[in-house]
Amino acid sequence: MYDFVLKDGLVVDGTRKPPYKASVCIKGDKIAEITDDPDIQGNKIINCQGKVISPGFIDLHTHSDACPLNSKESESMLHQGVTLEVTGNCGISLIPSNKSNREEIREFFSRTIEIGIEDTSLEIDNMKDYIEIASKNPLRINTATLIGHGTLRACVIGFDDREPTNEELDKMKNMLHEELKNGAYGMSLGLIYPPSSYGKLNEFVELSKVIKANNGILTVHLRSESNLVSEAVDEMIKVAELSGVHLHISHLKLIGKPQWGNSQKLLDKIEAARQRGCNITCDQYPYEATSTGLSALVPGWAQDGGNSKMLRRLKTKDSRLLLDIASEMERRGGEKCVGISSTHGHIPEVDGKNIEQISRIYNLSPVDTVIKILIQCSGEVSAIYYSLSLVDVLNIMKEMDIAVGSDGYNFSYDLQYNPHPRCFGTFPRFLQMVRENNLMPLEDAVYKITGLSAQIINLPDRGVLKVNNIADITVFDFDEVKDMSTFVHSPVKPVGIYHVFVAGVPALIDGVKTKNKKGRVLLKNN
Asked: Which positions, given as ranges, span the membrane (predicted)?
C-alpha cells in the first residue's frame, strides 16, 4: 500500500514531455509509481483533478543561508511551491570564517544582504560546522549551498582592494577545495560587492579550476548589469574558456533605459560562447525592479577596507565620490527609481519612499540624501531599483537555457517591513506571466523551474517525476496561480499553490502548511 496517492492530476514531469493525466504514488521518501490505473489505492488519497502535478520547484538563487541555523519560521518559499533553494549566492556566504574574523564575516553578510541575523548561531567556520548546526533545526524545505567568493576572500585577505599574493591564493584554493569536498555545490562571485569585486581574472581562473576539479559550478553576479554589461559577460566567458568551469550567470538582466532592448544581443553573445564549447547557463527573476543595498550606489573604491572605512569616506563628501554616486543612481533610473524598502528601524519614516521624495523632506540633493541615509543606518539599507524593461524580461524568459531564481530570502509572513516581492511570489509570478503572455507550453515552463534547475546544480534524483526519484512534488492550478505580493505590501501568500511534498511528506496541504519538516541541507556527491 502506498503512503500517498496524488490522484488523477495532469502530470508535467520536468522533462518537457507533454502533460498526461495520471496518479503519482509515494512510498517513504520516493516516487514509487506513476500510473493511469483508476483504482489505484493508498493510505491517503489526494484528489488532484484539474490541477498540475509537477516536481517541486527549485530556486537556484537565494540568500537564505541563515535560515537553517535558527529556529525562526521560514515559509515564503514553501508557499510558492519551492522544495529546494540554493544559497550562498552573489559572493556572499556565512562560511568559511575563523575565530579571528567571524564577527567581520557576520557583519559583512548581514550588511550586504540587508538581513538581520542577531538570533542566528554563527559559531561556524566551515561546511562541517554549518551541517552540524543545521541538522539541529528541522527545515520545511531543502537547501544546498555555494561558497561566496567575497567571504572566502575576506577570510584570507580581508576587505582590502588588492590582488592576493601567491601564498594567499593557494590558501584560498585549499579552503575552497575543502568546502567543496565537504558538500558545497560550487562558488559564487558577487562582482558589484566588495571584496568579491576586487578580484581579477587570474584569481577567478585559478579558483574555477578547483571548482572544475570538484565537478562544481561557478555562479556570478556580473560586474555590471548596465552600461558595461556586455564587457562583464565577456569577462566571465574568458574565465569559463580558460578554466573549463560550468559558468552560471545569476539574475540576467539589463539595468537602465539606455540598455533596454539589448537583451537579444546579450543572449546571442552567450549562445556564441556555448557554440565555442563553453558550458553556460543563467537564471532570472520575473520582475521589472531589482533589489539590493543602497550601498550599491557607492563605488567599489570607496568601500575598500570595509564598511567602517566606507562610512568615513561618505562623511568627507569627496567630489569624486559624489559624482560616482550620482552616475550610478542615474544608470539605475535616477532618484525617482530608487526606493527605500527598509532602513531596518533606523529611519522608519523614509521606508517606502523614493530618493526624490526623501530629498524634498530633507531639503537636500539626491546624492546628499543617499549619503545621509547610509550614514544614519551604518550602511544597512534595503533598496529597490525600478530600472528594468518588461520587453527584455519576457525576451530573456523565453530562453530554454535560463532557469528561475528569486534572489530572495525565505521569510515568515509576520514581517514589519516590505522586502522585494520576489521573496514571496517569484514562482507563481513566473507561471502567471507564462500564462498571460502565452510565452511557452506548460511543460516548458515547468522544465525551467524543475528539471533544468536540477541539471544546472547537478541533482540527479530531483527535478523530474520518475520512479525512485525523491518525492519532492508541487501541485498547482495553472489557470489560477498568481503572485499576490506587491511593493507596497509584500509579505502576502500567492494563490494557486495547493500541495507541496518534501521527501515524500506533505509540507503544504490545500495551501496550509503542516507541522512536517522533512527538509535538510543537501550535500554534493563529488
From this structure: none
pLDDT value of residue 107? 76
Cα–Cα distance, 491 to 73 (Å, whole number):
13
Residue 24 domain-assigned (yes or no): no
> Considering the domain boundaries, does residue 40 fall inside one?
no
- Do both 300 and 440 map to the same domain? no
Q: Dump pLDDT digits (tens) for 176-213.
A: 999 999 999 999 999 999 999 999 999 999 999 999 99
Tell me the three state secondary structure of residue 478: coil
Taking the alpha carbons of 490, 496, 502, 507 in that order, is the dihedral positive or negative? positive
Q: Which of 385, 407, 425 is the last residue of a domain?
A: 385
Q: What H or E segment, with its residue span, contains residue 422? A: helix 422-437
Together in a domain, 119 and 216: yes
Pairing of strands 280-284, 246-249: parallel
* Residues ≥6 apart with Cβ < 8 Å to 319: none
The model's confidence at residue 419, banded by pLDDT at 50, 70 and 90, is: confident
The DSSP string of 89-101 is: -TT--S-S--TTT
Same domain, 129 and 273: yes
CA dihedral sign, ordered 490, 82, 222, 98 = positive
Q: Is the pLDDT of residue 120 over 70?
A: no
Domain total of the chain: 2
Contact 62, 408 (CB under 8 A): yes
Report the pLDDT value the prediction gives residue 364, as an integer from 0 to 100.
Answer: 96
Task: Look at the block and give the residue holding cell 565555442.
Answer: 276
> How many Cβ atoms sit within 10 Å of the Cβ of residue 388?
24
Asked if residues 77 and 485 have their Cβ atoms less than 8 Å apart, the reply is no
Is 146 part of a structural domain of the chain?
A: yes
What does the alpha-carbon distance between residue 203 and residue 173 come to, in Å, rounded to a whole number?
10
The span from the CA of 343 to the CA of 320, in Å, is 26
Partners of 473 in beta bridges: 55, 501
Q: At CA 496, angle to CA 493 and CA 502, rounded to 5? A: 80
Q: pLDDT digit string (tens) for 82-99?
A: 999 999 999 999 899 887
Q: What is the pTM of this model?
A: 0.92
Q: Answer yes or no: do 124 and 260 share one domain.
A: yes
| Domain boundaries, position 277 | 57-288+388-457+464-508
- The pLDDT, as a whole number, for residue 360 is 96
* Pairing of β 382-385 and β 338-342: antiparallel
Where residue 86 sits, what CATH number does that domain have?
A: 3.20.20.140
Position 71 scores a pLDDT of 62
Indicate whether 98 belongs to any domain.
yes
Q: Is the pLDDT of residue 100 over 80?
A: no
**Distance between CA 453 and CA 471 in Å, rounded?**
16
Q: Do 172 and 243 fall into the same domain?
A: yes
Q: Are 280 and 311 part of one and the same domain?
A: no
